[in-house]
Design goal:
Elements: E1 7-10, H1 11-17, H2 20-24, H3 31-43, H4 46-59, E2 62-67, E3 71-79, H5 84-93, H6 95-102, E4 121-122, E5 128-129, H7 163-167, H8 182-185, H9 214-219, H10 234-239, H11 245-267, E6 281-284, E7 286-288, E8 300-302, H12 307-312, E9 314-315, E10 332-337, H13 344-356, E11 365-370, E12 379-380, H14 382-389, H15 398-406, E13 411-416, H16 424-429, E14 440-441, H17 442-450, E15 459-464, H18 468-474, E16 479-483, H19 488-498, H20 508-513, H21 516-519, H22 525-538, H23 550-560, H24 566-569, H25 616-630, H26 633-640, H27 655-665, H28 672-675, H29 680-692, H30 700-713, H31 716-723, E17 729-731, H32 739-751, E18 756-759, H33 767-774, E19 779-783, H34 786-798, H35 802-811, E20 817-819, H36 822-841, H37 853-856, E21 860-863, H38 866-880, E22 889-891, H39 895-898, H40 901-911, E23 920-921
The structure holds adenosine-5'-triphosphate.
Length: about 900
């Protein structure tokens, strides 16, 4: 009987074939091989089946497609269009089986058996052979054969243990000791040939098994890696006796890893003068969005830690991939988030480089993808996806690929700039199913990886800018790491270091600091570098013109450094900015025509040591320039508008582009390029638009954005006119306040004549920002993280800034105090305790503080710690209740919910007498 055609296999049934009875009849099969095979079709869950299907598809031996409702377990196998020659080869391989089958009587066999007609056999080539056609010649569905019929097969050939299981035992460092797997020395019917690249794995095809597959031709050329780049001792290699199959594969794998490491060592090396500064990595989480939920996509947000929490959640780079709770064979997805220019690319390239030097040894293979270069709609096999789209050595051998498929836990896939994928949202909505076609769209492959179906068990590291739209996907991520940028001391160190060998620049730091607004952006490493470049160019020549806007800074740099800093700005940025009548509409702005693509995908030639890539900030500036040149004046107001109804395309103007755009519009540089749009009339129109805004109606994020834009106009009158519309109770709870945000907020609050109360909880505001804001005259009361506030007081006390301290203490409020975490209790305890230090500790009479008003006047405490921490938290809280003399209302709402326990009730009863003003206790 000829090869099977269109046979429906039920894998759930197939696994039943491997009964104990059946196994006991096998004479040359290692039981572990059977177990492994059964695991593939059974044990490890459905996703193991995906792996198998992938392997089968990839080998080209047969194509597997889901049938009916895409059930993964019912699959149709179709014969691949093999040549006659290859069929003969395959038949030859089965001669042992044929011989055995010949000994079978017709009675014992429910149907006639031919050389290729074995009830169910995974051949060494990884092909699945079914019972084939019925006597009538029609394809038959795979029928369960009663196990006794198998007894006639006394010898089923399973090749030695799969390559993966051998290689996975090997250490990652080189040279890899090659140990002979016991299975290799067993007497198998297909002896590994030293000259023929046959596969040893049940699922690993050999070159000769796959004559028609695209990989097959190249597989004849072994070793296939660019060996010139590998520092292996070739003379020794030639002395090596014809080795066992396993050894060949080990060498191949070693060579691949070694070549990959050498490549990464070269292309991801830091430039000599690159001042790498280790930035803080914070373990972050997402939580339901505070405040109004505007749309479905905005339901989640990243938690904003206070300084104490940030310290606690700080992570070392080497521990980035650590996960004690990781489930075996489960893909791990890590999202590395940070604003543009925070150093995400620098960091992941550093990881690649460090891997090449032996760190992150848990990974044998690291693949780096630059998402912006991936065309999501293009079709690739998964193998090509890995080896052709990532920065990778040229791999022509399928064994390396097989190793990767078999050892996903040793594979790290880095996708840099996930948000730069075309249509990143669409990427995750799709559902990945193993398809019959050998190639899949990049989009689908990524979906398969993200949905943990493809290469299950690997580690995915995605980098992305913090965007609200992406937050919803973070729920599917196992670990979220946020990059916080430079601390203020790191900024100073960086600038000093930059100019350290130039005595004439000894005042560079002070000079840069004087541009307060742009200096506040220096927590972003890229901006820090920009400011150094700016100082480099201007410190000697420029008469300081204060203040400097963001747009002015970039414009200045782009004018002066076109050639010197081509790597940052790309050549001809401004030259290209001509008016193109074809893009004079809003839609054209979706894809700015002038996009700076200065970063090249790392080439495998290894010559690229360029580490400076173009930042999105530069691209945004470029985009603003382009917009200015292409949009009609009358449309500009609509373009920068914050009102969704006014804007035709909300997505068209990201916040930073708007800032640049407004800044450029009001930038008085006399540039001929900008003159044609920079009419006074347009400026007036934009100013008028901002003047009509009611700041009190804007959400915190929008409010800040308006303030940035207004600051960019450098129009003090405009700002003054806006200040009066500011709310008297400003709450930024749940909105991150970066140093530039604090700067513009401070600017406007300074102008305010009204008394404003400020809520700065959950804003991640830094120490300096908190101090600057709360000490403002217009701020009469404020709320902030308790621990941050206590720290601020301590610093002021230690520095002897008693007047400020006194102001700060008097403005602070707590009312009502909600206990939502154990930390809230601990912080309240610390606040009550510091009272003694402040009131009694200072010998200085200027600090005439008898008590902390916030503590003295606290009237309401709402306790809601839930079951887990209820009792612990309450026992701590109850101790300080007597120190809250004005407490009138204690809300324990639902005692069982809070679970304060008998001890909690007991302690409460003991303190009850001291709570003189307590009126209600819920
Ligand atoms: N840790 C660092 N130490 C020193 N400089 C850094 C560091 N991280 C980033 N930089 C500087 O910032 C520049 C931009 O960094 P990078 O491209 O990694 O940012 P990014 O977060 O990937 O930005 P984007 O989201 O726009 O792609 C670098 O070229 C470098 O000059």
């Amino acid at each position: 009987m000829e090869d099977f055609e269109d046979i429906t296999l039920n894998f759930q049934d197939c696994k039943d074939l491997f009964t104990d009875d059946f196994v006991s009849t096998l004479t040359t099969v290692d039981i572990s091989d059977i177990e492994e095979l059964v695991n593939y079709t059974n044990g490890d869950g459905n996703n193991r089946m995906d792996d198998l299907l992938n392997v089968l598809n990839e080998t080209g031996e047969c194509e597997v497609e889901p049938v009916r409702k895409r059930s993964r377990k019912n699959c149709t196998l179709r014969k691949s269009p093999h040549s006659q020659k290859s069929r003969q080869k395959r038949k030859k391989k089965c001669t042992d089986i044929t011989a055995l089958n010949e000994s079978c009587t017709e009675n014992e066999t429910p149907y006639s058996v031919s050389s290729t007609d074995v009830p169910f056999l995974f051949t060494p080539a990884g092909s699945v052979v079914g019972p084939g056609n019925t006597a009538s010649g029609h394809p038959s569905p795979f029928t369960m054969v009663p196990s006794p019929s198998f007894k006639i097969i006394t010898k089923i050939i399973f090749c030695p243990a799969p390559l993966g299981s051998v290689l996975s035992c090997l250490p990652d460092t080189h040279p890899i000791p090659i140990t002979e797997h016991p299975a290799l020395s067993t007497n198998t019917s297909i002896p590994p040939s030293p000259v023929r690249n046959d596969s040893c794995s049940p699922f690993a095809p050999s070159a000769s098994d796959l004559p028609n597959s695209p990989e097959a031709a190249s597989m004849y050329h072994i070793p296939s890696i660019d060996m010139d780049t590998v520092n292996t001792d070739k003379s020794k290699q030639t002395q090596v006796e014809p080795v066992q199959q396993g050894n060949e594969k080990h060498k191949l794998m070693n060579s691949f890893i070694e070549a990959q490491k050498q490549l990464y060592h070269k292309i991801f090396a830091l430039e000599r003068d690159f001042q790498y500064t280790e930035t803080a990595l914070i373990n972050s989480r997402i939580s339901p969005k505070t405040g109004k939920v505007i749309s479905k996509t905005a339901e989640k947000e990243l938690l904003h830690y206070d300084l104490a929490e940030r310290e606690r959640e700080t992570l070392q780079l080497l521990n980035l991939f650590e996960d004690k709770d990781r489930k075996e064979m489960e893909t791990k997805i890590i999202a590395l988030l940070g604003q543009s220019g925070m150093g995400k690319t620098v960091l992941v390239k550093k990881i690649c480089h460090e891997w090449s030097t032996g760190k992150f040894g848990q990974f044998s293979c690291v693949f780096y993808f630059e998402c912006r270069h991936l065309d999501v709609s293009k079709q690739y096999s998964f193998k090509d996806f890995l080896f052709k789209l990532s920065s990778c050595t040229q791999v022509k051998n399928i064994d390396v690929y097989q190793y990767i498929l078999r050892n996903p836990e040793k594979v790290l896939l880095i996708f840099d700039g996930f948000d730069e994928f075309q249509d990143p949202e669409g990427l995750l909505h799709g559902s990945f199913t193993t398809s019959l076609s050998k190639t899949n769209k990049v989009k689908d492959l990524f979906t398969g990886l993200f949905q943990k179906k493809l290469l299950r068990g690997c580690t995915l590291l995605l980098t992305a800018r913090v965007k609200e739209k992406l937050n919803q996907y973070l729920g599917k991520v196992d670990k979220i790491i946020e990059m916080m940028g430079f601390s203020s001391s790191q900024v100073e160190w960086y600038i000093k270091e930059y100019f350290k060998e130039r005595p004439d620049f000894s005042n560079a730091l002070e000079w840069i600091k004087s541009f307060q607004y742009v200096f506040s952006y220096c927590y972003i490493p890229f901006m820090c570098k920009m400011m150094c470049l700016f100082a480099d160019e201007n410190l000697k020549s420029r008469n300081k013109e204060l203040p400097l806007s963001l747009a002015a800074l970039y414009y200045d740099l782009s004018q002066k450094n076109l050639h010197a800093y081509g790597t940052c700005f790309g050549e001809g940025t401004l030259q290209n900015c001509t008016v193109d009548s074809s893009c004079l509409d809003f839609e054209s702005q979706k894809k700015p025509e002038l996009e700076l693509q200065t970063s090249k995908p790392p080439s495998d030639t290894g010559n690229t040591t360029e580490f400076m890539t173009s930042s999105a900030l530069v691209q945004n500036f470029s985009s603003a320039l382009n917009t200015l040149g292409s949009i009609k004046d009358r449309n500009l107001v609509r373009y920068v508008s914050f009102d969704p109804k006014k804007r035709r395309n909300q997505e068209s103007c990201p916040d930073v582009v708007r800032r640049f755009l407004v800044g450029l519009l009001f930038h008085d540089n006399g540039s001929p390029i900008l003159k044609f749009t920079k009419s006074i009339k347009t400026q007036k129109k934009i100013a008028e638009y901002f003047r009509t805004l009611q700041l009190s109606e804007l959400c915190p994020h929008r409010l800040l954005e308006v303030l940035h834009c207004v600051y960019e106009t450098n129009n003090t009158r405009l700002m003054r006119s806006l200040v009066v519309t500011l709310d008297k109770e400003l709450s930024f709870v749940g909105t991150r306040l970066t140093p530039p945000d604090v700067f513009v907020l401070k600017k406007v609050l300074k102008m305010s004549k009204a008394k404003v109360s400020l809520d700065l909880r959950k804003t991640s505001i830094d120490h300096k920002g908190l101090k600057e804001l709360v000490c403002l005259k217009s701020i009469t009361s404020f709320r902030a993280s308790l621990s941050d506030t206590v720290n601020l007081w301590k610093t002021l006390l230690a520095n002897g800034q008693n007047i400020l301290l006194k102001k700060c203490i008097n403005k602070f409020t707590l009312e009502p105090f909600k206990v939502e975490s154990l930390k809230d209790v601990t912080d309240l305890v610390a606040l009550v305790d510091i009272q003694n230090d402040i009131c009694n500790g200072s010998p200085d009479s200027s600090l005439d503080i008898k008590e902390i008003p916030a503590v003295k006047n606290l009237r309401s405490v709402i306790f809601g710690l839930g079951k887990k921490h209820g009792q612990d938290g309450f026992l701590k809280l109850v101790k300080i209740l007597p120190k809250l003399p004005a407490l009138q209302h204690l809300d324990l709402n639902n005692l069982t919910e809070n679970h304060i326990g008998d001890r909690g009730v007991e302690k409460l009863a003991e303190t009850f007498a001291e709570l003189q003003y307590l009126q209600t206790m819920e």
